[in-house]
Amino acid sequence: MDQPDLSAPEHYINREMSLLAFNRRVLEQALDPTNPLLERLRFLCISSNNLDEFFEIRVAGLKQRLELGSDQAGPDGFTVATQLQSIHAATMDVVREQARCLNEVLLPAMRTAGIELIPRTQWDDETKTWLERYFELEVEPVLSPLGLDPARPFPRIQNKSLNFIVRLSGKDAFGRNSNLAIVQAPRSLPRVVPLPNNNGNVKRIVLLSAIVQHFVSSLFSGMEVLGCYQFRVTRNSDLYVDDEEVDDLRRALEGELAQRRYGAAVRLEVAKDCPPEYDEFLIKQFALSELDFYEVTGPVNLNRLSAIYDLAQRPDLKYPIFTPGVPKRLVGQGDFFAAIRAKDVLLHHPFQSFAPVLDFLRAAAQDPQVLAIKQTLYRTGNDSPIVDSLVSAAQSGKDVTVIIELRARFDEEANIELSNRLQEAGAHVMYGVVGYKTHAKMLLVVRREGDGIRRYCHLGTGNYHPKTARAYTDYSLFTCDPEIGQDVHELFLQLTSLTQTPRLSRLIQSPFGLHAAMLAKIEREAAHARAGNPARIIAKMNSLVEAEAIEALYRASCAGVKIDLIVRGVCAVRPGIPGVSDNIRVRSIVGRFLEHSRVFYFDNNGDAELFLSSADWMERNFFRRVEIAFPIKRRSHRMRILRDLDTYLWDNTQAWELQRDGSYVRLQPGSEPAVTAQLELLASHALGSPGFAAS
Predict the structure, then answer these.
(1) pTM of this prediction?
(2) Which residues are catalytic?
(3) Are strands 452-460 and 472-479 parallel, antiparallel or unpaired?
(4) Which CATH architecture has domain 328-506?
(5) pLDDT in tens, 251-293
(6) How many CB atoms are located within 10 Å of the residue 464 CB?
(7) 242 torsion bin: left (phi>0), alpha (psi -120 to 50), beta (else)
């Protein structure tokens, strides 16, 4: 039989449309009545924030390519122009659904629950009096209305800021006719304003946008305000630094950060009640087109409603609090190093606590036998206890080396501040490799012991960020395996000195070998299948778009390999194509926690291999980042991770299955019991559950 063309465009799903489909799955969580009410509001805000970043980075990149005349189609056959048209149509649907979710579902439910977001039409006299005073004292002093005339061109509008276009009638202070003005709401003003609570448990809230619109006439004395309409512009927020020309990466990034608020406009959102002539006026001012324009029913800065989550002070409307478990061997452990010497320790966050990682680093900083600490930092957050321990270690005279990735998107400024603090403490701070983001998650502690120098390692799939460790699912491993320790040592030498590393014995690294290794392991499964042996692949990751990896999966499927892909977000694989991907099943898990772990399992005819990794299967992770994949050798750990993967594959409540046409269908329990993977894992690992003490 003729072999199918595995590279045919119809076998691939477009990356941008897949990303928008993921955001729809997030939005569906806001519409799911089984989720707590304030969590549903939070999911709505997350979907809005995701959409913002999609335009700031992905759409901005497409528009740049179009401007440069690069309209080449990708593996899916979509040209840039086709993608922008498809994005507009899909985004219009999302924007309409977000508005329906807020106005018709969440706000009525919140009102019933005692949280009232009060529109201007329902303000009573007492509320108006209080808000007028609030406007005079807190809002008006920081507003600077900008009248438009030939001497005053349209002002610079910051990225994602709240603005109003005001329609006026009458003469200004100089006797001239004036009909337009712009009012910008400074970022210092809270977008959600709680009203005095005189109604018992009812929390009454007003939006800043409503306050400005109601009292805006006081800013234009002697003139009549005929209308005041919200708008917001989204700008290109991707930082550009010429890696070949820059001498000081930190200084170059600092210069770029100052310009991020005023990048090229890529999207315009305007309130639905704004007259069409003003829509057209704003589109022209930002040099945009109809494909970049979105009409919004409700607040244009939807994600700012996330402030209600904390303001409401309603734990009964949130997910139940849980206490992450701790492996039994680490409970009350006074000697972390002895526990790790005894055997490797595997953690599954957030079901198990991130505290052992913090405790380990704190112990290393204080231990007089520790000679050196080396760590990579991609995202770690402000006021990080990780950085506190590194600073303490450096100040106590230990050799501390930190590889900070300054170009971690939207964390650049925080990482620059962290690097300054570490350098002041005496740590050696490197900014990674020019042209390659350092995304690997590695911590190395070098300790002098009775029998010589020993290396202790912590490796993970997620960032060294204590806050996200309670919200993202990730694995991490403590080990003092000499071969892994030597590999990690070599990798740090590579990152600091840029020397070539010898062949690694246990770890696999990108950009040098990870891509080839994954393709080889996929092909090995295909060979087993062709030989009539058992063959199975389970791969869990955030994104899967790299064309050669997808072709390899298609070849394995054709050979008869059973392939289960658990891909949270973007997935370009098109499952279920006869003769191409019959044996491939793709699912996405969207729930309370953000699925973030990367796990690669290959059956290998019974001699199974299982890797944890910092890398997704994308071009950037394989070829433009420093990443690692590390093996799980201890049998009990492999079996535990496989049980976790099976739990994800059994999920029939928060799992979405990818269809051949690119759509996702949410699974529903039929006659079988309902399975929610994240709840099952909480029950297995969280404190107080039967399995919380598992090592």
Answers:
(1) 0.92
(2) 439
(3) antiparallel
(4) 2-Layer Sandwich (3.30)
(5) 554 555 555 577 899 999 999 999 999 999 999 999 999 999 9
(6) 27
(7) beta
